[in-house]
Known about the structure:
This protein is mostly helical. The chain contains nine helices and four strands; from the N terminus they run H-E-E-H-H-H-H-H-H-E-E-H-H. Helix content is 67%, strand content 4%. A hairpin with a 3-residue loop joins strand 3 (217-220) and strand 4 (224-227). The relative contact order is 0.13.
Amino acid sequence: MSVETHVDRARDRVAAERDVVADERRAYERFGSTVASIPTASGPAASGGETTAGTGPGAGGVRAAVGGRTASATDGCRRVREAFAETVCPHSVADRAADEPLSATIREELGDAVAVALSPKTDHGLTPPVASAIGSAVDDRLAELAVFDRTLEREAASLRSAHETIRDVTDWLATADETPLSALGFDELRRRHETLADRIAACESLLADRQADLDRTASRGAAVGLRHRSTVAYLYDDFPASHPVLSTVTRLVETLTECQRAVRDHLTRRA
């Protein structure tokens, strides 16, 4: 029977986080597409001035001033806010207060400038510059999520490698433990000692590889970079062991070393 370790739980955590990131990326893509489809305002209406789009019965547009701002000037921003609330917001507030104001969530996700531009209190509409700023902010978030997912992918591979080594060692220990040392001959004890040394070396190599993984940085262009160590700290913040691989393998090395010492004692007494 395989022994369950912190690494197994870590693998589940990474898989769940990758699903979350995939959902958020899709949400941002939907939001970006919706924003791109909303007509932008221009002219006096864009800055809150009152305009008349046609006169007389059956004209194509009607003056509709609301609190000093025309409906056409503010409708685009309203539609953007609604799109954000429908797509991105449900994924954003999951790790924050569920009752967080929409404006605060927009600021958190897209930055202060976009939040101000989209605020119902702001006296302008969805102008081309505003739409462009929103598009840039969405691109930035997608780039950040892509880098984060790349880090998660690397973490999943690191955990998979660690899991294979740990399972190999623990399965061997479970099998070896079925035969007491007193039942082994001298040559068998010597082979057992050598095998333990090989297992210890494999674990120490795994520890070195893991440290190298933690020191890596994932990036996408010059603007976005993410240290792997920071991702690990985030992922396992609520774990009993903040470094599941290092703690598990270190304890395994200690166990193997104790076993090797016991074998060495038997060898010494029989020499």
